Amino acid sequence: MRVGILTSGGDCPGLNAVIRAAVLTGMVHHGLEFVGIRDGYRGLKEGDVRVLNRSSVRGTSRIGGTILGTSRTNPYEGEGGGAAAISETLERLGIDAVMVIGGEGTLAAANRLADDGLPIVGVPKTIDNDLDATDYTFGFDTAVQIATEAGDRLRTTGDSHMRCMVLEVMGRHVGWIALHTGIATGAHVTLIPEQPRSIEWICEYVQSVYDRRRAPLVVVSEGFRLEGMEEEYSRKGLDAWGRPRLGGIGEVLAPMIEERTGIESRATVLGHIQRGGAPSGADRVLATRFGLAAIDAIVDRAWGSMVSLRGTDIVRVRMAEALGDLKRVPEHRYREAERLFG
User: Where are the catalytic residues (predicted)?
Assistant: First the structure.
């Protein structure tokens, strides 16, 4: 059996660990052959592949990004797109199965291709940790560690100048990165998409912290909305899936805080820094386990399935289960963190 592997959507620490684990276990224990599909669904449509073997994945589990490249291409659009055309491309290349590693948009497309009869197995990837069918996804732990280090650094410079520091982290629809970062850094306010708040509510906490001769730290998800805002703050247009490119709400909040409190305020937007660099140890382990389990699913011809973490166990679920709803921060988890605000 010849297996194609692709990574699609945003890059993420841990992608290479999945690829490495899949290739090594597939070759050694199952006699499989592998090709890497370049640049996600673009390579799938165009038949752009490279051979993957032991030497090509050696030592890659510690490397960030993806050795295969990625894109936000829609496999159903443009020349070579659609299930029929892709099926012909797979047959021409002698590819018997495809391992698709990606987040919500990628897996939605993979699920559609599987429903149309293509032999596909999914591996969940998102630093936002927002896929409902798995407890955690690799990349999340690394993103939180990076954001935590940034928050710690902002606190020292904020303390030096008695400034309010606003740290914007990723999180389009869910606030898991912000929640964990806020708790880890001891942030005085954490703002997430699931819980809109007024600027007055935010400033009350900021002022109370400042009055105690402390420099306030505010952690905010990029998808946070102030009460009264109809949609997330976006000024960067749309991505390939028609979703607004977010980023910049921190730079909106900082001057509003300064205007209302008189406290000098600065914003830092981490953006893609959270995606880059080497994966944490926890993410390397989880990604490796996902790669091993995905090969087992391919050997079993469990098309349309996705590997998932449930507790400490790796299980299989239908890809459709990951797409029904996002895994949002429940209110009780936010209330838990809120007890430490101010």
Answer: 128 (proton acceptor)
- Do residues 342 and 211 touch, judged by C-beta distance below 8 A? no
Largest CA distance in the chain: 70
Is 148 annotated in a binding site? The answer is no
pLDDT in tens, 253-266: 999 999 999 999 99
Q: Is 310 annotated as contributing to ligand binding?
A: no
Residue 222 in marked binding region: yes
> Which residue out of 39, 128, 130, 141 is catalytically annotated?
128
For the chain, which residues make up each domain, given as ranges? 2-138+279-322, 140-276
Residue 214 assigned as binding residue: no
The C-alpha atoms of residue 108 and residue 322 are separated, in whole angstroms, by 9
310: pLDDT strictly greater than 80: yes
Please give the distance of CA 318 from its chain centroid, rounded to a whole number. Answer: 20
The topology under which CATH files domain 140-276 is Rossmann fold (3.40.50)
Q: Is 70 annotated as a binding residue?
A: no
Helix (H) or strand (E) holding 101: strand 97-102
Between the CA of residue 84 and those of 89, 108, 217, 303, what are the distances in Å? 9, 17, 53, 17
The residue that leads in pLDDT, 235 or 265, is 265
State the Cα–Cα distance between residues 281 and 259, nearest whole angstrom.
42
Is-same-fold flag (2-138+279-322; 140-276)? yes
Does the annotation list 275 as a binding residue? yes
Closest CA to 48 of 37, 57, 58: 37
Q: How confident is the model at residue 152 (pLDDT cuts 50, 70, 90)?
A: very high
pLDDT tens readout for residues 27-38: 999 999 999 999
For residue 11, indicate whether it is catalytic.
no
pLDDT of res. 159:
95
pLDDT at 74: 94
Residue keyed to tokens 């349309």: 304
Sequence-ordered alpha helix ranges (H) in 6-129: 15-30, 41-46, 54-57, 83-93, 104-115
**Which CATH class for the 2-138+279-322 domain?**
alpha beta
